[in-house]
Amino acid sequence: MTSTQLFNAVTLAYFASMVLFVVYLATRSKAVALGGNILAYAGFLMHTAAIGLRWRETYTLLGADGYAPLSNLYESVVFFSWTILLIYIIIDLKYRQRAVGAFVLPFAFLAMTWAQLRLNDAIEPLVPALQSNWLTYHVITCFLGYAAFAVACGVSIMYLIKFSKEEKKPENTPAGGLMALFPSTRVLDDINYKAIMIGFPLLTLGIVTGAAWANYAWGTYWSWDPKETWSLIVWFIYAAFLHARFTRGWVGKRAAWLSIFGFAATIFCYLGVNLVLSGLHSYGAGG
Amino acid sequence: MTAKERSFLTAVWDFLCSLKLTIIILILLAITSIIGTVVQQNLSPQEYLQFYTEKTYKILDALHFFDMYHSWWFLSLLGLFSLNLICCSIKRFPRVWKTVMYPNLQGDDSLFRTLSNADEVVVPGTLAEVTEKLKAFVQKNFAGTVVTTGEDRTYLFAQKAAYARFGVYVTHLSILIIFLGAIIGNIWGYKGYMNIMEGTAMDTLRLFGSNEPLKLPFAVRCDRFEVTFYEGGGGRPKEFISDLVILDQGKEVEKKTIQVNDPLSYKGITFYQSSYGPAGDPIFKMRVRVKDSDEVKEYMARQGEHVNLPDGGSFAVTAYTQAYDRFGPAIQMHVNTPDGNHGNPFIVLKNFPDFDAQRGGKYIFSLDAINQRYYTGLQVGKDPGVWVVWTGCFMMIVGSLAAFFISHRRIWVTLQPVGGKIGVRIGGSAHRNQPAFELFFDGLKEKLKKELNV
Ligand code: HEM
User: Fold this and answer.
1) CATH number of the domain bearing residue B223
2) Which one has a higher pLDDT value, A12 or B311?
């Protein structure tokens, strides 16, 4: 068994889990939700094993030059997807709100599909600039932060859907039907905020470890290159979110929109800088 | 100062202390920062004129968009940001200091009115007895308790993690410290590069940007530069290595083999491996065997030079690479016949000495070594502010973890004799994570009732 085969199985598991969660939204069958969750957990275990396997494969293939599989776009997307599941599972254990799965698993599934179909999965030895422990810490912290923001974005979308449904009804009763499956708006708002509160220090740590890496490699901890600048933009947005919340009481709808907006900037930082800005200029190949 | 002046100053002060300003600046910083990622920074005018018309170029230049992160307006925004942070802290910190250092030990009626977690019971006993009981209870279930007495009442107070209130201030201060570090680096630091040929020493670097020379208080010698490639890596470089020696007043004081991600520092100046290049033509050490004989000759050949062979012909190496696909170092060469006819070019691989025999020529060439001298390209930097920046980063992470996740929790108990019994009032508050505190407090109430048998 190769890691690629295992990653394919993981992608299938996430797909099936996603379908079951959507079916759950339609049928409200508890058993279906349980099935979806079992597949999500099983997929996560396989995913973990597959990352470990790929790690070992780098050593089989490259001998002493093996590396932690977090070094190219393919590996980072796979890891991103893994962190989304990790955060989902933490939230599932704490809140037990299965409908969240229908809004979080698609992110993980799409990431895996894109990685498996479109990205180069060859194991290639690292060029000198990438041979740094700081880089490993950098990738891990950044992506855990991104995943927390992804979850915050998912529940914010749920919040807006549920909120608009409840708003239409004259008396302020909780919405029935499909909406009854969603956690209450209060819980959704709370998860949004908690996820960002977890993601923000991780992003801070990610930016700091990235700066440390740049400092060891090039003697410049900050050079305003587009990737760095975009990570700072994302940081500014979530800092604004937290301050608006802590001190001005921004909750609910405005907080949900700001969270979605923040995640859009996160995605741009992660992919847009390489895919869009690098088309505009010559940079973007690195980092 | 007239009333009008005073009200103007108050208005300025309120503006600088306002949180709305904080949020507006954060959003403005986010938006303006985008500009520098779309407009490429610090190119030459000629390069810009390839993308932009003259008119656009002039407008963008006037707006300082070509070096926006160092423009007056962006730096002013950062300055305002710092001022906002400082003013807010000056305004709010004294109150927080008081809350932590001189806590309100006596839970009076007005305080209890503000607490959402509170309860009341009446129990038999003397004031002294009940006080002892409750003191032990709070101590056991929460934290060390301070007892004070008022006119007819006794007050208990206990708290946990009061220092968490400082987390926000540590975080905010850390931002100013990072800025300070950046300013120190900009004033007293510099960045440049030097290209040192193998076997030579240098004491002058060229600054980035201005390209001005700058003399160091010592010299650096490069004894060896080497680039290694991955075997079978399709020519991927594995390591760039330079053996550096620091010569301070002519004496060798420090030696280090540096590579990418592993620089050398001496007297606050750091040398980073950043590039390399060939210095002069390479010399190829060739071994030539005459076909079907044991006759072997060795030659040293410069690139492009014709070297005579025993039969009156000659050979010349015309090109070389350190990594010919997966096969390692290789040269391209050709052989001229004695009458001067130019032969077809062919490849000789260093790692496969017998490979050339398959060509079937009169001479079988193998490549022993490529003696190429290199220069090593070092980036040189001095940044006395970098430790200030790391200190700030550390404070930011510790401070924000404390600010977000550690909650300052307080419990007040007030005891008052009422009609031969003792009225017990207990209340508490937390500055973060109220739901968790509510759970804790509900549990505490249950336990208290059991303890007091009510
Ligand atoms: C970037 C520049 C920043 C400015 C100008 C700023 C400004 C402020 C101000 C004025 C307050 C209100 C203070 C108070 O209520 O005592 C505040 C609160 C807060 N700030 Fe910042 N802040 C900044 C960055 C940060 C960062 C990066 C973090 C977190 C890592 C942070 C975390 C907090 C927290 C947690 C509070 C809530 C205080 C509370 O309600 O107890 N701030 N900020």
Assistant:
1) 2.60.98
2) A12
Q: Is B239 on the interface with A (CB under 8 A)?
A: yes
Q: Do A201 and B401 touch (CB under 8 A)?
A: yes
* Structural domain contains residue B98: no
- Both B84 and B193 in one domain: the answer is no
Please state whether B266 falls in left (phi above 0), alpha (psi between -120 and 50) or beta.
beta
A283, pLDDT greater than 70:
no
Mean pLDDT for the stretch of residues B301-319: 89
Side-chain half-sphere exposure of B87, counting CA atoms within 13 A: 18
Ligand 1 nearest-atom number relative to CA B85: 5
Q: Which residues pair with B275 in a beta bridge?
A: B377
Whether B393 is covered by a domain: the verdict is no
pTM reported for the whole predicted model: 0.82
Residues B80 and B217 in one domain: no
Say what the pLDDT of residue A172 is.
Answer: 53
pLDDT in tens, A68-108: 888 888 998 999 999 999 988 988 898 888 888 888 899 89
Residue nearest to atom 16 of ligand 1 (CA): B92
* B20 part of a folded domain: yes
pLDDT at residue A201 greater than cutoff 90: yes
Q: Across chain A, what does the average pLDDT equal?
A: 86
Chain B nearest C-alpha distance from A259 (Å): 14
Q: Is B105 helix (H, G, I), strand (E, B) or coil?
A: coil
Q: What is the pLDDT of residue A287?
A: 33
Residue A247 sits at the chain B interface (C-beta within 8 Å): yes
- Single-letter code of the amino acid located at B344: N
Same domain, B269 and B380: yes
Is residue A248 in contact with ligand 1, taking CB distance under 6 Å?
A: no
Q: Among residues B93, B120, B146, which one ends one of the domains?
A: B93
Query: Residue B413's pLDDT is what?
Result: 94
Residues B240 and B300 in one domain: no
pLDDT, residue B204, reads 92
Q: Which helix (H) or strand (E) segment is B167 a member of?
A: helix B167-188
What is the tens place of the pLDDT at every residue in B311-342? 888 999 998 888 887 788 899 999 998 888 88
DSSP secondary structure, B307-364, as one string = EE-TTS-EEEEEEEES--TTS-SEEEEEEE-TT-PBPPPEEEETT-TTGGGGG--SEE
Give A26 to chain B, closest Cα distance, Å. Answer: 32
Whether B192 and B235 share a structural domain: yes
If you measure from the C-alpha of residue B406 to the centroid of ligand 1, how many angstroms do you get, rounded to a whole number? 15
Query: Distance from B291 to chain A by nearest Cα, in Å?
Result: 38
- The pLDDT value recorded for residue A284 is 32
Counting one residue from chain A and one from chain B, the pairs whose CB atoms sit within 8 A come to 109
Q: What is the CATH number of the domain that holds B157?
A: 3.30.310
CB neighbour list of residue B430: distance below 8 Å, 6 or more residues apart: B407, B408, B409, B410, B436, B437
Q: Are residues B379 and B274 in the same domain?
A: yes
Are B183 and B53 contained in the same domain?
A: no
Same domain as B9, residue B68 = yes
Q: Which residues contact B206 (CB under 8 A, 6 or more apart)?
A: B192, B193, B194, B212, B213, B214
In-domain check, residue B414: yes
Given this model, what pLDDT does residue A170 score? Answer: 55
What phi and psi values does residue B453 have, to the nearest 5 degrees? 55, 50
| Segment B235-242 mean pLDDT | 82
Q: Model confidence at B452, in pLDDT bands (50, 70, 90)?
A: confident
φ and ψ at A66, to 5 degrees? -60, 165
Stretch B199-211: mean pLDDT: 89
| B194 φ, ψ (degrees, to nearest 5) | -145, 140
Is the separation of the CB atoms in A76 and A84 below 8 Å? no
Task: State the total domains in chain B.
Answer: 4
Q: Closest partner residue to B19 among A243, A273, A277, by Cβ? A: A243
Range of the domain at B253: 171-280+375-388
* Residue B316 phi, psi dihedral angles, 5° rounding: -145, 140
